[in-house]
TrEMBL record:
Pfam families: MFS_1 (PF07690). The lineage of its organism: Eukaryota, Viridiplantae, Chlorophyta, core chlorophytes, Trebouxiophyceae. Belongs to the major facilitator superfamily. Sodium/anion cotransporter (TC 2.A.1.14) family. Residues 1-25, 271-290, 313-357 are annotated as: Disordered. It is a multi-pass membrane protein. It comes from Chlorella vulgaris (Green alga). This is Major facilitator superfamily (MFS) profile domain-containing protein. InterPro entries: MFS (IPR011701), MFS_dom (IPR020846), MFS_Na/Anion_cotransporter (IPR050382), MFS_trans_sf (IPR036259), SLC17A9-like (IPR044777). Its main location: membrane.
């Protein structure tokens, strides 16, 4: 049996894993079999079904030993029962569709604002203000959405968000006729609804998707944002020409009605996705059920539930091997592939840990590894860590270009290359199709590199660097004389740039799962909040720059500078192991 993902992570960066004392089975279970059974039932909430699965697991282990299996892998004794992959995959697929709807609803105004501006007489500075007000509402619910999702479950939060932003999309045309203040208020309300989407989804991924598939899941979900943008840019020009700009909002806003019947029956209980109400312990059908208490040790993260199961059901040889693994006592042969598991190395008291660097005084200072996980970790404690700031800075600088293009790309081709509105889809669609396609592959590539032994930090650094420096170069060319006035050439360069940018889905987009799996929703909310600030600034400032200078080269030059700075700082600060402050 192959080593677990957590054991692979421990081998890649043993020095960065805080040394933690494993609870004694005697403490956990008591001194009697009856006390052990009661403690196990209380800890896991699984009741009789959990014990039956545990004993079934033991029978399988005994069968393997009888058949002359290879030497025992200690990770095997701590491996939880396999999850039903079809369930979490369905959940991720439906979440991805919601993201596609989200981005289609927010992106359609980028094309619709062209005829709207002609009808209402809006200058470019007013266009930028209207477009950017979405981010004001979006910003307000980033941290709130993550905190609510982590506490009450992502399903309920995401469902409420979809309903809210879809209604606001449908109400956009009537409010536009009421004037700019009413339209701005509606855009803010729409941002409030969409702001909870990604924090809620990432909270779901953190508790329902196996660790070695999280990059893939995040890649699929984030790639859906590009797919939704592509659909909006591809269909909006045709809808505007055939039906009028108002119908862009009516059609896209109503799309959630097709999604809800498939989403509502789903639930997330006890960290796994399932259909229907179920009977999970403490589950509310929305991911808010009780979660097993976890601690970090030699193999990354281990459930006390699993240690209790091992103590109840494992053979003496298995318990002995697991105990030796927990204490870091020597190399143990892995049964499946012959690789050897290295014991954990202790950290010097005066060493600065890669897993968490306190920035309370503005400089990196080492901290002494504490025994046990901290309880009740606050948001401010996490925000003092440079690994969290790596995510925030990369999200900010990358989103300056992403949101700038998202809101101004149709205007770029109409203004700079004089493309008619009916032909805009030919130039604005393909960049996001390619970006979404590369994004789907990026998650798989990142997971493959990790399973083949690449250190987590190297994978994140390489993908993020290429994913930011590549677009920086392409953006400069797209608005330069090198395109010779050809909108097709400019679209090709932008397509290459956005395709390369999708590589960041295997880097900053999953880094919060590396460093803070218990607070994934909150940390992602912080990063997404930074990205939203970029949109709140980039979109209106682009309108001001264009109105004052008329230079798209200057607009894209500012974007390229952001990409370069973000790539450098992320490579410097990125983390690869759970922070001590994550608890």
């Amino acid at each position: 049996m192959a080593p677990s993902r957590s054991s692979l992570d421990a081998r890649r960066s043993p020095a960065s894993t805080p040394r933690t004392s494993w609870p004694s089975p005697a403490v956990l279970l008591g001194k009697s079999a009856a006390g052990a059974k009661a403690c196990y039932t209380q800890l896991t909430g699984l009741g009789r079904g959990g014990l039956q699965r545990a004993h079934a697991h033991q029978h399988d282990s005994n069968d393997e030993e009888a058949d002359g299996a290879a030497a025992l892998d200690p990770a095997t004794a701590l491996r939880p029962p396999p999850k039903d992959t079809s369930r979490w995959e369905l959940l991720v697929a439906l979440a991805a569709i919601s993201v596609a709807i989200c981005y289609a609803d927010r992106s359609n105004i980028s094309t619709a604002i062209l005829p709207m501006s002609q009808q209402f007489g809006w200058e470019q500075s007013w266009q930028g203000l209207i477009l950017s007000m979405f981010f004001l509402g979006y910003l307000a619910t980033q941290l709130l959405g993550g905190a609510l999702a982590d506490r009450y479950g992502g399903k309920t939060v995401l469902t409420a968000g979809v309903a809210a932003w879809s209604l606001c999309t449908i109400l956009t045309p009537p409010t536009a006729y009421l004037g700019i203040p009413a339209l701005i208020a509606m855009r803010i309300a729409m941002g409030l609804g969409e702001g909870v989407a990604f924090p809620a989804i990432h909270s779901i991924i953190a508790c329902s998707v196996p660790q070695d598939r999280r990059s893939t899941a995040v890649g699929v979900v984030t790639a859906a944002s590009y797919a939704g943008t592509a659909v909006a840019f591809g269909l909006a020009p045709t809808i505007i020409e055939d039906l009028g700009w108002q119908w862009v909002f009516y059609i896209f806003g109503a799309s959630a009605v097709l999604w809800l019947p498939f989403w509502l029956p789903q639930s997330v209980e006890g960290g796994t996705a399932s259909r229907g109400g179920g009977s999970g312990s403490g589950g509310d059908g929305s991911g808010g059920g009780a979660k097993p208490f976890t601690i970090r040790g030699l193999f990354g993260t281990a459930d006390i539930e699993e240690e209790a199961r091992v103590a109840l059901t494992a053979s003496p040889e298995q318990r002995g091997a697991a105990s030796a693994a927990r204490s870091g006592g020597g190399d143990v042969a892995a049964a499946a592939d012959g690789r050897r598991l290295r014991p954990q190395r202790s950290l010097p008291d005066d060493a600065a840990s890669e897993a968490g660097t306190d920035w309370s005084d503005g400089v990196a200072v080492g901290f002494q590894v504490q025994q046990g996980a901290a309880e009740g970790v606050g948001f401010l404690a996490l925000m003092k860590q440079r690994e969290v700031w790596a995510i925030c800075v990369a999200q900010y600088t990358g989103s300056w270009g992403f949101y700038g293009l998202l809101n101004w790309l149709p205007s770029f081709f109409e203004d700079h290359y004089q493309v008619a509105i009916g032909d805009l889809g030919s130039f604005t669609l393909m960049p996001y199709v390619v970006q979404g396609s590369v994004g789907l592959a990026t998650g798989v590539i990142a997971d493959k590199l990790l399973t083949r032994g690449w250190p987590v930090k190297r994978v994140r650094r390489v993908l993020q660097t290429v994913g930011m420096l590549g677009p920086a170069a392409c953006m400069l060319v797209a608005a330069s004389p090198l395109t010779d006035g050809d909108p097709g050439a400019a679209s090709a360069w932008i397509t290459v740039g956005l395709g390369l940018n999708a590589l960041t889905l295997g880097a900053v987009s999953v880094s919060h799962l590396d460093i803070a799996p218990k607070h994934a929703g909150v940390i992602f909310g912080a990063g997404n909040m930074s990205a939203t600030v970029a949109g709140l600034l980039a979109v209106p400032l682009t309108g001001v720059v264009l109105q004052l200078t008329g230079s798209w080269s200057m607009v894209f030059g500012i974007t390229a500078a952001h990409y370069v700075v973000g790539a450098a700082l992320f490579a410097w600060w990125v983390g690869d192991a759970p922070l001590q402050q994550d608890g």
